[in-house]
Design goal:
The structure is a single chain. By secondary structure, the protein is an all-alpha fold. The chain has one domain (3-70). It is 74% helix and 0% strand. The protein starts with a helix and ends with a helix.
């Protein structure tokens, strides 16, 4: 990743508008949680639950990585 991109990410994360990302994240997770998990088979139900959790974890990791890289936190 080049320094220009890191600087842009740092400006983004340090801006007051960045705080909007957390309510947006909560909204997206809420929408995913409203989707039904129960399917025709136990396998499909488990698959749906794992898929939902993977989405939630992935979104959190994405935001955390932006912040970590932008703020040079190792």
């Amino acid at each position: 990743m080049d320094q220009l991109l890191k600087r842009k990410l740092k400006l983004l994360v340090q801006s007051k508008e960045w705080e909007a990302i957390y309510p947006f994240q909560a909204y997206i997770v809420e929408q995913w949680n409203k989707m039904p998990l129960v399917a025709d088979t136990e396998y499909e139900t488990i698959k749906n639950a794992i898929s939902r959790q993977a989405k939630v974890d992935g979104l959190s990791e994405f935001i955390e990585n932006i912040e970590r890289i932008a703020l040079d936190v190792n």
